[in-house]
Amino acid sequence: MTATATTQTLEEIVTVLEIPSDNLIKTSQIRDNLQLFISMSNNRLKDLLLLLKASPFVDMKSIIVYCKFQGETDYVSKYLCDNNITAKSYHSGLLMKNRNRVQELFCSNKIRVVVATVAFGMGLDKSDVEGVIHYSLPESLEEYIQETGRAGRDGRLSYCHLFLDSTTFYKSRSLLHSDGVDEYAMSKFLFQVFSCENSVGCICSLVKESTSRKFDIKEEVLFTVLTQLEIGGQQYLRLLPQFSVTCTLYFHKTSPQLLADKDVLVRSVLDKSETKGGHFVFDMTKVANDLSITVNEVFDHLQQLKFSGEISFELKDPACIYVILKKPDDLNALSADITRWLSEVENSKISKLDAMFDLANFAVKGCQRTDGCSGSQHTPCIQKKIIQYFSKNYSTSDSGQCTQPQRGSPFLQADIKVFLKSNSFAKFTPRAVARIMHGISSPAFPSATWSKNHFWGRYLEVDFPVVMEAAKAELVKLVGKGE
Asked: How many whole angstroms separate alpha carbon 222 and alpha carbon 240?
């Protein structure tokens, strides 16, 4: 059961699950008791406050305001409190007990407004939410439907308002490129995963932070790739629980050699360790492989020695742990396949965001206010667009209203040339340059370092692939000159 599946998705589901087509029940995605509003905003904070203090929102007891970023929810909720509106923020960065407390207060009507990320509402048992406000543009029509659907579950008339801000759209669209990976980076990563040192059946590890920085691939994406290697068409590895793999060991009672004579694990530790200042540093997976046990068993044994007073130890370097089941016949082909798959996922997300923006942009700029639409109330045209989206392969060009990112800039090439010359100490790829020009942080080029650069985020509104191509052209010129 789902409220947000396109025709193509439904066809795939019924095929995989072998469900007869006559057992498929389809209903409208938007309930009839929801009134949908969209307005353009150049000052969302001010407009949000005005909206909450005007009818019908001023009389509502339960309102959810959805934001994209965690920090944004904290800032907006504080602003509302400063203006005499009881509000609390909710996002996954809060402690679980604090999140539960906010949900309890909201469900008991002790706070009027919850300012939240998408994390709020999953399994929310509250039928009398009267209003949903999108302070930020949802990333897809599916997300928009799910979040507006949290209003009016008791069947009463409820109101949903979306603030459209094109700058926020460009930023959201830009950030969807933060997970992208180049094929040569993926190839190098896979060569490390399946390196000669890592034989079939042995326990292997990848330290998350250093690996992420080395290949300039986000930790979440690295884990996604490893998961694909586990559950994809061919199972190449089995993932084990993540663990910190670098252990520093200190001996307190028995001398290391004497203890090693009595304890096989200590003997292995001494054999696999580097000695630094009288203590021993080793990789947990190497000891595990040496003794044919798991990393958890190594840890448990160290804990027993610690409780007996023999040793103390420290762990660092959180890592992904895995066992190789089969090595690929062609790593380059596998790299190409995974890179293509990640690119398809990225393009799908961009298409969904474009469809969401297209709908909102059409409402404020293209709607003729016929068939029941008036002012910022666009329930009829929104419902029509949603039906089109879920019933066919939706095209963002259908309305002719979508404001796509620019396809270029007269200064782009020259600015990239200046940027590369003034930062010749760094080893750039076209993707890394494009990310900086878009203001996107990455493991190898973090915002903490690069946001101070003059060109950071300057070309946010130019389509990311266009910036990448311009960067590639300039980098090729530098290589040709031997710079």
From this structure: 15
